[in-house]
Amino acid sequence: MAGVLIGLALLAFWLFSLFDVITTPEEEVRHSPKAVWLIIVAAVPLVGGAFWMMRGRPRTVVTAGPAPVESGPAPKGPDDDPDFLQELDRRLRGESEA
């Protein structure tokens, strides 16, 4: 049972690596042409996939700091709107008196 799970995990890793090479744009591939990476990953599944992840895959850009804040007034909820609160108060008083 453990052998089957390991085999499925290796197959999943190989397929992920293969599809990742295929879907990565040519200009973002590092160190070798995309066709060479495709041959390496297809021919040597575990080692080729590991090399692709370490050396060929595009680097992701990580930005530090808070997300930019949009300018303009912050959206208000209905409970922050004075007109809504007055209308609500009027409705509640009208219903309780009737």
TrEMBL record:
InterPro entries: CLS_N. Residues 63-85 are annotated as: Disordered. The chain crosses the membrane at residues 35-54. Keywords: Cell membrane, Membrane, Transmembrane, Transmembrane helix. The keyword RNA-binding does not apply. It is a multi-pass membrane protein. Residues 12-57 form the Cardiolipin synthase N-terminal domain. It comes from the Bacteria. It is found in: Cell membrane. This is PLDc N-terminal domain-containing protein.
